Amino acid sequence: MTSVPTTVTASATSEPHTVRPFAVISGAQVQQVLEGREKQIVELAESTYRLHGAGDSVNPPSYFLRFPDRPTSRIIALPASIGGHVRVDGVKWISSFPENVQAGIPRASAVLILNDQDTGYPFACLESSIISATRTAASAVLAADRLSRDRPRPTRVGFFGTGLIARYIHTFLAGNGWSFDEIGVHDLSADSAAGFRRYLEQSGATGRITVQHSAEELIRGSDLVVFATVASEPHVSDPTWFSHNPVVLHVSLRDLAPEIVLASTNIVDDVEHCLKADTSPHLAEQLTGNRDFLQGTLDDVMAGRVTVPADRPVVFSPFGLGVLDLAVGKYVYDETARSGKLHVVDDFFHELRRYG
């Protein structure tokens, strides 16, 4: 369905502004656009980090809505604005209800609103759990590549936590040419670990797949460690488990004790965002009273301002930036519009003339 944009003139001397028709993009459409485009989305993540690093973005702190009667649950608002070739404002509204898993439905659900930078009018609402997982996976795979360039490329990967995010990270690794001799799997839920193993086998993953029954075995046996859990506080505390200097994608942010953070090279996506909400780096800052343990951001690494040593563990802790959601969401919108498959809500904006 299509609709004609409405042109509104504020005054006789002002330039006319066009209000885009409001569209709704379903999860099925989002998946159709993104499936098989892992390389393009990693490249998009890289360009977005560069725009953010250059200051061509606005990415204020995320807002956490918490519930006294449901302490494990939260809904987070991630407002942001991105310039460059993307040029869009918006907000992701994402919930995390861990008890959903016991009911057989995913933990997280989300929508993304895109706003026009000229008028401020929202022009699209997209199902965003897929967008969120996609941008998280693209960010992680970009980091895996950049942080391993000055050391032997990892041949053994270990997944600690086996939910949707782990699956997307594996998909993006495979889609960007990564293959492994060994794939380790560990989860507190034996059923989840078994299910992830079945997914790996069905995906055609190369290498020997092993379900590890201890966290220590998984970490010691992996050159690339992916933390994708729902942990709310550190549960891995022994720095000696990382003595082989792996690349650690600390996607879930709260798995590692401060002692491990302080014994590692630490790269984040954004310093101010990451050092809050009792993430592992935030706990390390509280323990030491400074930020000296942070070497820089992923953009610093890409720009050559930070060199990652090969003789220490390197930990990438991404808080998750709203600008990445916007970049992926705008990509989905543009591709859907180009295909002529936008679902437009006619007359969504009823009053478009100031004086009627």
TrEMBL record:
SUPFAM superfamilies: NAD(P)-binding Rossmann-fold domains (SSF51735)
InterPro entries xrefs: NAD(P)-bd_dom_sf, ODC_Mu_crystall, ODC_N, SbnB
Pfam family, one: OCD_Mu_crystall
NCBIfam families: dehyd_SbnB_fam
Protein's UniProt name: 2,3-diaminopropionate biosynthesis protein SbnB
Gene name in the database record: sbnB
